[in-house]
Design goal:
By secondary structure, the chain is of the alpha/beta class. It contains nine helices and 20 strands. Strands 4, 5, 6, 7, 8, 9 and 20 form a seven-stranded mixed beta sheet that branches. Helix 3 runs parallel beside helix 4, helix 3 packs parallel to helix 9 and helix 7 packs parallel to helix 8. The chain starts with 7 loop residues before the first helix and ends in a 5-residue tail after the last helix. The N terminus is likely disordered.
Length: 405
């Protein structure tokens, strides 16, 4: 049957259903400043008016939100946080204290890393404020952050976000409900709606996949010289850096402060680094550079690594190096694949944010932590941007949804 006659009063209700007929000669426009709507009436063709060629749109807030006709509208959350490192939990603490009822999806081995992010793979942290020597274990720090997030009013879910839809508002967050979840909790809806999203999924250090790498990761192998190089475990030992770019040279120079000797493994016959960085490395008395050399295997005593098997590809010679630590400087992969190109990324896949902010290319979507930072990549800087994202999200909600905030 045809839709009932619509009264003027009905058009001013917060939730209005408008039937749009897709006919070649028809036109319909909806203008919604302060919830006022003007309809340009058009004649209907009886044979088509109530068939399959119409679509339904829904007004749920001040802005026009287009939804699928077959999709049930779930509650719209104010803030969804994706990621569980220092950036994500700092954002959770701030948005929770602001009474925004945030939900944080910490992931279930997302990017092959436990909930808590890269810090869960760090044995000791000495450079995070508030934890003087002997510092704090990375996993203990993240457990404390998680507890604080919950105490501040954030709901933490151990589920992985598999994709998002940022093409319409409210945004859609698709959760992988096939993963394990707390039986005491109601089953998570596959699609969650939200006004704002804070992306804090981090970046994963590239690994080489050589034998022994998994066994001795964090037990002699690290991907962050600045984070771990000054730890007692690595001091006064022969250390090795794998890589030939600027980052590798910078980390090598940093490690010379602690190492008795520093060896660089460069698979090519020359550096990729800038000339000035090459000169610093080659002229340093503690540094030895092995060009045309690749890592084949990491060996150890079962507890800690103590040697490497390497190969000079030019001479086809395989030999062993006795070392006390191995540092990868071969780059990171930002965890942005689930965005499917909906946000502006730089040439290496990091989310681009407006200078001095965490604002992305889509209003209402914010990025914090290593997913948008390829320069510093520190826990404390990640936490700082998590705070920024939370404050900016709160400001966005106040501006666009004042009646709900």
């Amino acid at each position: 049957s045809p839709p009932p006659t619509t009264t003027s009063k009905q058009w001013y209700q917060r939730r209005v259903r408008v039937m749009r007929f897709v006919l070649p000669s028809q036109a319909l426009s909806c203008i919604t400043p302060s919830f006022s709507i003007r309809i340009r009436r058009v004649p209907l063709v009886p044979s088509l008016a109530f068939g399959s060629q119409f679509q339904t749109s829904t007004f749920t807030h001040k802005k026009f939100y287009s939804t699928d006709t077959t999709e049930k509208m779930e509650p719209i959350h104010k803030v969804i946080i994706i990621g569980s490192g220092p950036a994500g939990h700092t954002a959770a603490i701030y948005t929770g204290r602001a009474r925004l009822n945030p939900i944080l999806y910490e992931g279930n081995m997302a990017a092959d890393v436990a909930a808590g992010g890269q810090l869960t793979t760090t044995n000791e942290i000495e450079n995070f404020p508030g934890f003087p020597a002997p510092g704090i274990r990375g996993d203990d720090l993240m457990i404390s952050m998680r507890k604080q997030s919950i105490e501040c009013g954030c709901k933490v879910k151990t589920l992985t976000v598999k994709k998002v839809d940022l093409s319409h508002k409210p945004f859609k967050v698709f959760v992988d409900v096939d993963e394990p979840f707390d039986p005491s909790e109601p089953k998570e809806a596959e699609v969650v709606f939200t006004h704002t999203i804070i992306i804090a999924t981090g970046a994963t250090a590239k690994r080489m996949g050589v034998p022994g790498e998994g066994t001795y990761w964090t037990r002699g192998i690290s991907a962050c010289a600045v984070c771990d190089g000054g730890l007692p475990f690595y001091r006064d030992k022969h250390l090795v850096v794998v890589g030939g770019g600027d980052t590798a040279c910078e980390e090598a120079m940093h490690l010379t402060r602690f190492a008795s000797k520093l060896t660089m493994l460069v698979r090519a016959n020359a550096f990729r680094a800038s000339k000035i960085m090459q000169e610093r490395v080659l002229n340093h008395p503690k540094v030895e550079v092995l060009f045309n050399t690749v890592l084949l295997e990491v060996q150890g005593d079962g507890n800690n690594m103590n040697s490497l098997i390497v190969k000079n590809v030019k001479e086809n010679r395989v030999y062993s190096l006795d070392v006390g630590g191995l540092f990868y400087a071969i780059g990171h992969v930002p965890n942005t694949a689930f965005l499917d190109g909906q946000l502006t990324l730089d040439e290496t896949g990091y989310i681009v944010t407006a200078k001095g902010t965490t604002q992305t290319s889509i209003p209402g979507v914010f990025a914090a932590g290593d997913v948008q930072d390829k320069v510093y990549r520190q826990a404390v800087t990640a936490a700082g941007t998590g705070c920024m994202a939370a404050l900016e999200a709160e400001r966005y909600l106040t501006e666009h949804f004042p009646s709900e905030h």
